[in-house]
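Quick question, first post here. What does this chain look like in 3D?
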Amino acid sequence: MLVYLNGEILPHESARIPVDDRGFLFADGIYEVARVYDGRPFRMDAHLARMADGLRAIRLEAPDLDRLAAVAEELLDRNNLRTGGATIYIQVTRGVAPRKHAFPANVTPTVYVAAKPFQDYPAEYFDAGVAAIRVADTRWARCDIKSVALLPNVLANQAAHEAGAFEAIFVRDGVLIEGSHSNLLGVIDGTLVTYPKCNYILGGITRDVVLDLARQLGIPTREGPIHEDRFADVTELFLSGTTTEVMPITRLDGRPVGDGTVGPITRRLQAAYRELTRSAA
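> Answer (accepted):
Ran it through. Tokens below.
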């Protein structure tokens, strides 16, 4: 597979970054992942806009993001990814400099782009739902920045893996926040509920699409908390994300969500999302 690194397209195995890169030393960088359906990147503009926001938040001058979008298209062509599923990965770090905490001066950012095949999750995950566990939210207070510093997410997802679950749901102050690599939405009294956009969650591109689809379908929506102590009121629960799309959770900590099956609102949103992603970029 060919990738892009600092102005050059080269084989993946030939791509090299110095050990003094601040992404390696400090996790000083931002990344994005976009889904590609039959050669068409989905919501690429939204992903690039979020990347620009993240770069501004960490005071890192953004490269030409339109140019990176063009690079991604070239990689799709040169890697023969115009049919089937794929992902585009973009990462920008502050660059290579001696290891000091303060920002270095006159340093060129490291820019990396990859386009790779993507194998969708098994159909049964979407048809029957997956299991999840709850974990304490130990992340920093700027989860809205899509930073490459993902160790708490990695540890949470590993805990889910060891428990035989698909995802770990972060809990903060008695409220279910989001997953380790996905947003979380639930149905309470027929209303679709998800934690409001703020510094404690990543404002998901798929989350925004799902909320918009719900409104188009006449499904009531509300941005608000899903409380642990009122979880019995939750009749449906699902994840949203670039790779997870609309994935139902039917078991949480070994107990059924609602009646333990995929609910009707989730089914409607799955169908609407599938139609959207398969018909338009």
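Residues 2-117 form a domain with the D-amino Acid Aminotransferase; Chain A, domain 1 fold (CATH 3.30.470.10).
The longest helix spans residues 264-279.
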